């Protein structure tokens, strides 16, 4: 390797005029240097780091040397180790002018020390300290960097060091603290004074050198502060030095970072008195710094782009860290109050980024206070009852009541001004956010923290919180009055924040123990009732105000339990609000207009919110509304007949009636469900309606016809039919969701939904089968002018693209041919646009899937119906080959997985077997084909990284991964449910190892228990073709580069325990499963799970390696470097080795020797333990982290691992 040629190639690539080809060649050359012959690469690197070389080449040279030292150290001899150490120290002494090169030289020496061991560190440290004392600021900076990098490498990046070597390095580093820590403090003190003197003398260059030393010393102190006992930091003077640095503009951020590290530490084994003293010293410095920033003269600079912007946030975050954990370390009440006062000032600051930094502390302190109050209450109740007081709990620091009250006021005010609602894209974007998405994410978290503050504060001071909620509600109600003159925006903000405050308060005061405390319950109800009346009495016609009023009414749901007398007038007022506040115009029950007028959508949403209020109430306290069911039903029918409520509002009100009747006797439940669903049943029984489902073509003609729009374009017809069908299906789904299964003591056949399931579910399955047909080529052709309705919505695409792989930029969703924009526009299910049809299709699918998925838990008797079983097997997977990944995933999530978890044993054969018989082969074909395409090598570099095709690729990959993970979940459920205990834990067969006695359990279809088998084992016996189709997909999936591969591997491990009871499965495990397990180690995906994969391989080999009838021996014999003698030696050693870990390590060494470590990406970071290698048992062990030249020469690529079993 010609060093000059290498230098010229690298140098040319660094020029501004370099071509893309030259840069690619240089990159390839550098990779060759990293992987090439180590001595030649080291010679090139040594030439590159010489001072006469350009800085760019010196950086490359240091990077190459760092790689060789960090990853290929064992390829050098002991003499060469000494030479590299000398070179590193000499380069450090040269004192390069560039900070990047000085940093690289310092890191190189640190890596050499890490690889050489504690002896070099102990020998080098005195020389470094001496050099720092004699050679001036440049060397002092580098010595500080070396100290920092050595600590980093030993404490943070030490995974590549063997256990004993790491222990010795840590011990040596700990012994050196008596020299390192005082040195860092001296560097801070001396250079700070020297920098000041240089500035006064006008020597800016000298001052800058001293500044660099201070920065390096603070960075080193930051690293040591993560693990050094805090008492030693204090004794060395570093805490005091950092506290002093808080008063400087140049160093305060770095000094504050050191304090934050210490403030976040746990006490551990340190002396409590010393630990508290350190935390108090830090708190004193922070209090002083906060007082300076919050002074009238400086507070204005805390805002965005102010002089103290970044430091203010750093300081506040540090104070929040210390206050959350160590506020009790402050020895006096005066200090604690000052600390809390400053944090209150930060929390109420108008700069949101700063105010948010203070909230975590308040949430934590209030949560602790609320827990302490609950514990004290429980202890008092137990003492009063004469029960066991339990173990003593650690006392928490009591917050002053005035402080808690002030916090509630701060949270309420912040909610009012900016945190009560989730921002929309119409809101003004603050300049300190890069995008609306960042702003929205921040506000959601900010609002959640404010709500937590109110909730926990209310738990500590419930009376005060209820009074505060009442005052804020009064102010909001007054502002909403037309006579108040309040601007609409201000009134909305006041009411929204008041409602939010009220919700958080009620959640806290109405805890689980309230019903057991009559006096407290009475006090809470007495405080809440006037607020309920004021909220009910609010008269507004503004859509947003009405929405907030409805949300506020929902918060009172639990009051009707102790006060059922309030139910009737409250519901009557809700009906009045629905009818009169925003009256429904003529024709309001018809589908929505294609282009709604301004305000129409907001009004519709407000009315829907109001109609949902009784539903929330009846769910919380159904007994309170039982006596009013007839009046409710009559009122709903009256309003519908008068055309004063819409279909969606009617559904919500009827669901409220169903929710209330859940507390009634079965006979009343049946009559109410009959009343609710009678209209739907009558409609679905008509010959005209049945004709629409006679075929997919008839369905499309009735519900998705494409018609000219009169302007040269196309639109969807069938609007009225889709509108009605949507609400009918929605009502059926809500009934099945709300009406839970009856208690065990009643006759299961008396379930009120059983007769309705017989007619409703088959029809919904026919509907969804027709919807599936739309995705066939014929269906797409019929919808060609509006075919975008069958594709993902632009808004959903944008969500997937934001989660796309790093490095692939997502192009902005373009406007498609239908005129859809990126925000998906208005997409009512009753509209005529492609977006409306897309929404309708999605909801109709979900209504059916969820209804069918709820049958095992909410209406078990329906599962016995032969008609439902036949309709299910015929329709649920109709046209599945043409469905998109996301549609199949939803079927798995909402139908198959709930059935596997919850259906009775007797239902497995008629429901699960036909479904899996259709699904398992399809999923195998779908997933293996898609992953084969995804993992195939690219034909060439893409030139359309920002194009729509690149976005499509990102979305397809994300959808494939989601489907794969969902299918992995389904297979896991098959392997973990036992037949005698639906939804129970995995059977003992899930454990790997030798086979047990044959178990011939009864079939679920016959009502037998199944002898403790898992559903997967039962499936393999009942329908072997389907069972093997399922496990074959899992075994193939072990080599896919996705997290689901690990879950597939864990399923494969359950097969090992089943194998001895099934001859075919036994052969499959020893052959295909073992092959897949070894091949999976070629993927980096398994790096974090390699221990479990090795356990799987070990289990198979323990079971079958010595069985001549097993294919396991053939699999091992086919490995590239496996000889018969080596294989026999491995078998012997495996049989003689005891303990799981020893067997796994032995198997690892066998695989590394047989495959080459470079082929097993999952084992790339594995270091063999101190044990004899397989090939030469009497040799001395290789040093950890190294490998022989033969091993490197025989290593082959990951692609070779995946095909190594194809050799004959």
Describe the structure.
- The chain is mainly α.
- It has 50 helices and 2 strands.
- It has a two-stranded antiparallel sheet.
- A hairpin with a 5-residue loop joins strand 1 (706-708) and strand 2.
- It is globular.
- The model is unreliable at 387-395, 744-748, 803-826, 939-945, 981-1010 and 1166-1208 (pLDDT under 50).
Mean pLDDT: 86
Low-confidence stretches: 387-395, 744-748, 803-826, 939-945, 981-1010, 1166-1208
Structural class, judged by helices and strands? mainly alpha
Work out the helix count: 50
Question: Summary?
Answer:
By secondary structure, the protein is an all-alpha fold. It is built from 50 helices and 2 strands.
Offer a few descriptive terms.
disordered C terminus; 50 helices; single chain; globular; two-stranded antiparallel ribbon
Strand and helix layout:
Layout: H1 3-13, H2 20-35, H3 38-48, H4 55-71, H5 78-94, H6 99-116, H7 118-134, H8 137-155, H9 163-175, H10 177-200, H11 204-224, H12 230-235, H13 238-245, H14 252-263, H15 272-293, H16 309-326, H17 333-347, H18 352-385, H19 401-419, H20 436-460, H21 462-480, H22 488-509, H23 518-537, H24 543-554, H25 567-581, H26 600-620, H27 629-641, H28 647-661, H29 666-684, H30 687-692, H31 696-703, E1 706-708, E2 714-716, H32 719-738, H33 754-773, H34 777-782, H35 794-802, H36 834-858, H37 866-875, H38 885-902, H39 908-935, H40 948-976, H41 1015-1022, H42 1024-1037, H43 1044-1058, H44 1063-1080, H45 1090-1104, H46 1112-1117, H47 1124-1136, H48 1140-1155, H49 1189-1194, H50 1198-1203
């Amino acid at each position: 390797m010609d060093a000059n040629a290498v230098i010229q190639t690298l140098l040319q690539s660094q020029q501004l005029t370099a071509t893309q080809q030259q840069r690619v060649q240089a990159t390839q050359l550098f990779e060759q240097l990293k992987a090439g012959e180590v001595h030649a690469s080291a010679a090139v690197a040594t030439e590159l780091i010489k001072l006469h070389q350009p800085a760019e080449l010196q950086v490359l040279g240091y990077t190459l040397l760092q790689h060789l030292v960090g990853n290929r150290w064992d390829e050098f001899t002991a003499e060469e180790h000494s030479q590299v150490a000398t070179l590193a120290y000499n380069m450090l002494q040269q004192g390069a002018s560039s900070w990047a090169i000085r940093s690289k030289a310092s890191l190189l020496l640190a890596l050499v020390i890490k690889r050489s061991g504690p002896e070099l560190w102990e020998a080098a440290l005195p020389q470094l300290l001496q050099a720092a004392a004699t050679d001036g600021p440049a060397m002092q900076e580098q010595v500080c960097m070396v100290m920092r990098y050595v600590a980093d490498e030993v404490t943070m990046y030490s995974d590549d060091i063997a256990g004993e070597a790491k222990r010795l390095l840590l011990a040596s580093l700990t012994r050196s603290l008596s020299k390192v820590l005082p040195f860092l403090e001296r560097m801070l003190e001396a250079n700070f004074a020297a920098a000041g003197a240089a500035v006064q003398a006008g020597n800016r260059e000298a001052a800058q050198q001293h500044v660099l030393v201070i920065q390096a010393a603070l960075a080193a102190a930051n690293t040591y502060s993560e693990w050094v006992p805090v008492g030693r930091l204090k004794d060395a003077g570093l805490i005091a030095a950092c506290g002093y640095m808080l008063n400087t503009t140049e160093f305060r951020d770095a000094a504050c970072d050191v304090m934050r590290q210490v403030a976040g530490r746990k006490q551990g084994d340190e002396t409590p008195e010393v630990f508290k003293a350190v935390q108090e010293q830090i708190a004193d410095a922070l209090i002083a710094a906060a007082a300076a920033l919050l002074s009238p003269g400086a507070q204005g600079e805390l805002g965005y782009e102010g002089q103290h912007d970044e430091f203010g946030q750093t300081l506040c975050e540090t104070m929040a860290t210390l206050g959350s954990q160590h506020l009790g370390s402050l020895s006096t009440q005066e200090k604690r109050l000052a600390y809390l006062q400053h944090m209150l000032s930060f929390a109420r600051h108008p700069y949101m980024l700063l105010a948010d930094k203070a909230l975590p502390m308040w949430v934590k302190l209030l949560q602790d206070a609320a827990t302490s109050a609950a514990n004290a209450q429980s202890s008092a109740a137990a003492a009063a009852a004469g029960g066991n007081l339990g173990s003593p709990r650690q006392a928490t620091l009591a917050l002053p009541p005035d402080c808690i009250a002030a916090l509630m006021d701060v949270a309420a005010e912040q909610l009012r001004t900016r945190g009560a609602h989730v921002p929309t894209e119409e809101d003004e974007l603050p300049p300190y956010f890069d995008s609306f998405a960042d702003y929205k994410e921040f506000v959601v978290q900010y609002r959640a923290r404010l709500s937590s503050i109110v909730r926990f504060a209310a738990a500590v001071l419930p009376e005060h919180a209820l009074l505060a909620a009442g005052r804020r509600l009064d102010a909001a109600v007054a502002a909403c009055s037309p006579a108040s003159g309040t601007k609409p925006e201000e009134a909305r903000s006041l009411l929204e924040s008041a409602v939010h405050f009220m919700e958080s308060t009620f959640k806290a005061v109405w805890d689980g123990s309230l019903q057991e405390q009559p006096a407290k319950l009475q006090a809470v109800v007495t405080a809440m009732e006037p607020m309920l009346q004021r909220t009910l009495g609010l008269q507004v016609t503004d859509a947003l105000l009405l929405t907030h009023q409805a949300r506020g009414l929902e918060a009172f749901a639990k009051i009707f339990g102790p006060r059922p007398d309030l139910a009737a007038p409250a519901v009557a007022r809700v009906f009045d609000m629905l009818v009169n506040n925003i009256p429904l115009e003529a024709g309001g029950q018809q589908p929505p207009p294609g282009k709604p007028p301004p305000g129409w959508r907001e009004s519709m949403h407000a009315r829907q919110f109001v109609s949902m209020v009784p539903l929330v109430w009846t769910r919380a306290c159904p007994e309170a509304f039982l006596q009013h069911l007839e009046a409710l039903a009559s009122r709903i029918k009256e309003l519908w007949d008068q055309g004063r409520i819409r279909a969606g509002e009617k559904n919500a009100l009827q669901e409220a009636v169903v929710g209330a009747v859940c507390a009634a006797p079965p006979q009343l439940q049946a009559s109410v469900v009959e009343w609710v669903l009678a209209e739907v049943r009558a409609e679905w029984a008509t010959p005209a309606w049945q004709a629409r489902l006679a075929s997919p073509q008839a369905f499309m003609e009735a519900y998705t016809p494409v018609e000219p729009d009169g302007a040269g374009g196309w639109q969807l017809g069938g609007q009225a039919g889709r509108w009605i069908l949507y609400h009918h299906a929605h009502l059926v789904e809500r009934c099945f969701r709300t009406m839970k299964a009856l208690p065990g003591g009643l006759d299961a056949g008396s379930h009120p939904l059983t007769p309705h399931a017989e007619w409703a579910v088959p029809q919904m399955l026919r509907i969804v089968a027709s919807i599936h047909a739309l995705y066939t080529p014929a269906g797409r052709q019929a919808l060609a002018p509006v075919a975008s309705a069958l594709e993902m919505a632009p808004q959903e695409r944008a969500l997937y693209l934001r989660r796309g792989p790093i490095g692939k930029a997502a192009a902005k969703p373009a406007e498609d041919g239908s005129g859809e924009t990126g925000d998906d526009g208005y997409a009512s299910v009753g509209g005529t646009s492609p977006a409306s049809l897309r929404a309708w299709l999605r909801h109709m699918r979900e209504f059916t899937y969820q209804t069918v998925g709820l049958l095992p838990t909410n209406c078990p008797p329906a599962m016995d119906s032969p008609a439902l079983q036949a309709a299910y097997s015929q329709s649920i997977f109709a046209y599945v080959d043409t469905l998109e990944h996301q549609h199949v995933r939803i079927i798995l999530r909402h139908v198959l997985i709930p059935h596997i978890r919850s259906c009775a044993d007797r239902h497995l054969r008629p429901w699960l077997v036909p479904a899996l018989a259709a699904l398992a082969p399809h999923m195998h074909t779908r997933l293996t084909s898609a992953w084969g395409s995804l993992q195939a090598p690219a034909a060439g570099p893409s030139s359309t990284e920002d194009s729509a095709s690149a976005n499509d690729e990102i979305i397809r990959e994300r959808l494939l991964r989601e489907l794969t993970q969902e299918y992995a979940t389904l297979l896991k459920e098959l392997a973990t449910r036992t037949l005698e205990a639906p939804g129970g834990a995995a059977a003992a067969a899930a454990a790997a190892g030798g086979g047990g006695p044959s178990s011939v359990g009864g079939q679920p279809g016959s009502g037998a228990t199944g002898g403790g088998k898992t559903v997967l084992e039962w499936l393999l016996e009942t329908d072997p073709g389907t069972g093997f189709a399922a496990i074959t997909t899992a075994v193939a999936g072990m080599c896919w580069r996705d997290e689901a591969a690990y879950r597939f591997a864990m399923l494969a491990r359950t097969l090992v325990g089943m194998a001895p009871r099934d001859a075919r499965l036994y052969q499959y495990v020893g052959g295909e499963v073992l092959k897949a397990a070894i091949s999976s180690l070629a993927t980096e995906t398994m790096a974090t799970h390699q221990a479990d994969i090795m356990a799987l391989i070990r289990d198979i080999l323990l079971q079958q390696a010595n069985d001549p009838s097993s294919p396991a021996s053939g699999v091992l014999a086919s490995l590239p470097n496996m000889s018969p003698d080596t294989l026999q030696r491995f078998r012997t050693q495996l049989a003689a080795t005891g303990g799981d870990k020893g067997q796994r390590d032995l198997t690892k060494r066998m695989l590394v020797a047989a495959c080459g470590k470079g082929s097993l990406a999952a084992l790339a970071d594995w270091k063999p333990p101190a044990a004899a290698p397989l090939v030469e048992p009497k040799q001395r062990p290789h040093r950890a982290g190294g490998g022989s030249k033969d091993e490197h020469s025989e290593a082959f690529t990951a692609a070779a691992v995946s095909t190594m079993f194809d050799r004959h």
